[in-house]
Design goal:
It contains twelve helices and ten strands. It is an alpha/beta fold and 263 residues long. It folds into two domains: 146 residues, Rossmann fold, CATH 3.40.50; 110 residues, Rossmann fold, CATH 3.40.50.1860. A six-stranded parallel sheet has the order 4-3-1-2-9-10, with helices on both faces. It has a four-stranded parallel sheet with strand order 6-5-7-8, sandwiched between helices. Helix 9 links the parallel strand 7 and strand 8. The chain is globular, with a radius of gyration of 17 Å. The two termini are 21 Å apart. 47% of the residues are buried.
Length: 263
Amino acid sequence: MIGIFDSGVGGLTVVKEIFKYLPKYQVVYFGDTARLPYGTKGADFVKKYSAKITEWLLAKNAKVIVIACHTSSAWAANFLKSKYKNAPIFDMISCASGEVLRSTKNKKIGIIGTPGTIKSAAWEKNLKKLDPSLKIYVQACPLFVPMVEMGFTKGQVAEEVAKEYLKKIKAQNIDVLILACTHYPLLENVIKKVMGPKVKIVNPAKSATIEIKNFLIKSPNIEKNIKKGKTHQFFFSDEPYNLEKISQICFGRKIKAKINDPF
């Protein structure tokens, strides 16, 4: 199986890309809804529960781990890769950085995410290592997550909030905007409308999925051990809010969820 975890339902946007680009593999998903949001938690907390979830997914026979949560990608990715050296682990930040660099023409990059992701500066650090000449502008958008989970993914309310959050970044004449939160792709059409056609929107979930696909092509010994088929499993540590609406948006159908808090 491909194991995917997030702090809540937002990681389903990553599952959506997995289903699109890697449709033959089984997925086991864990959303830590009992402890969300991770975006306002400290680094130690995020590392602790990211490790617990990773161990749980490995025990569920996951052969590849995907850190869908951007806050976990920021605070815990290096920690997890060091702790679980025998497990291929993919995070949103390292997987998408290459696409960002290939996409920018003027080297002005915008990043929007949760307060935790923005505070970590993990995206900026990673991008600056690859190209120190980049100019990077960031904006925390904490209302985007509850908006998505309440179903406000389009319309006047979504547009007005997006305009307020994005106005400073838009004024910097960026040509690439990174959606540094799993919920944000569900607002992509609104964000595109606000930013205009000249700004490339990067969805790291897509970048990560393509990198996983390439990895599996080059790693047949791992690939052959991943279960195939459509029997996917979705676990949440507490009753997920508005799951039916989010799953309909992502997959066009309701998913069967199991409530299980093993921690």
